[in-house]
Design a protein that fits this description.
Elements lengths: L2 H24 L13 E2 L2 E2 L5 H6 L8 H9 L3 H7 L3 H21 L6 H26 L14
Antiparallel strand pairs: 1-2
Length: about 150
């Protein structure tokens, strides 16, 4: 990959991560007590963007992440966890992309070392697997509370 393409990719990923964090901060959190729990921006409810949810009336692996990110950005940790169990860790992964991409823009392609590659790909793989496992557990109504180690301690 050439330096110019590399920097273009870094700018794109930086813009994407910064946009997610920025929008999480300007959206208003959903009301956990309301039946219609969509986030709002300037008083307007956001549309449901999940095609899986619209077509099959079932949540996808990422359903609830927007509400979770917005709740977390506004300091409501309990609601964030209720909307999506992986919302906070994923929010932190997205947030950490900002300094990482700024660093890579500063040092260029020579800074894309094996360590940096692992720093990017290991959390990405973990998050992907965790999203799929969480989704499957949700689809089959399996609660990890049933398998808690607390009853053995």
């Amino acid at each position: 990959m050439k330096e110019k393409e590399f920097k273009k990719d870094q700018w794109l990923q930086l813009l994407f991560a910064a946009s997610i964090i920025f929008l999480s901060c300007i959206f208003s959190p959903a009301s956990p007590t309301s039946k219609d729990d969509r986030v709002t921006i300037f008083g307007f409810k956001t549309p449901i963007l999940c095609l899986h949810r619209l077509i099959y009336n079932q949540p996808c692996a990422g359903c609830g992440l927007t509400r979770s990110f917005v709740s977390f950005a506004h300091g409501d940790i309990d609601s964030s966890c209720k909307y999506h169990k992986l919302g906070i860790p994923l929010f932190i992964v997205v947030l950490l992309q900002i300094p990482l991409r700024l660093h890579l823009l500063r040092v260029g392609i020579s800074g894309y070392t094996p360590f940096i590659k692992k720093l990017i790909w290991i959390p990405a793989a973990f998050c992907t697997i965790a999203l799929i496992v969480n989704w499957l557990l949700h689809l089959y109504n399996i609660s990890l509370k049933e398998y808690s180690l607390q009853k053995y301690i």
